[in-house]
Amino acid sequence: MKITVFYGAGQSAQLEVQPSDSVKAVKQKVIAMHCPPDWANTALLAVKDSSDYFENRKRLAQCGVQDGATLKFAYARNLSLMEKVELSCQGVTTDKYQLPPMSISTLPENYV
Fold first, then answer.
1. Separation CA 8–CA 98 (nearest Å)
2. pLDDT, tens digit, 9 for 90 and up, residues 35-78
3. Rounded to whole angstroms, what are the CA distances from 46 to 16, 22, 23, 27, 78?
4. Phi-psi region for residue 79, left (φ > 0), alpha (ψ -120 to 50) or beta?
5. Nearest 5°: phi and psi at 84?
């Protein structure tokens, strides 16, 4: 079956896939055509105009992808805890996260 995958700045590609192909396999085909930027550490695939991203291990048929489907592909970055904290300090809203237990001392380093 043929699907259209939009990626990059308005670029798209028609891919020949099988309903039994994994989401990960489709992502790998797009990555081969459109190399990831340095900052990216993950890739996302979903139906175009949706934010319900497919899981890598699922098959296209399990995701409801049929012949002629239009999907979107995007690179993303999974943030580390410290990156989330830094963004939060800058006023950027991120997913909720839990800080590990810690203690903060206001005493000088050489205080005994």
1. 33
2. 999 999 999 999 999 989 999 999 999 999 999 999 999 999 88
3. 17, 13, 9, 10, 17
4. beta
5. -65, -40
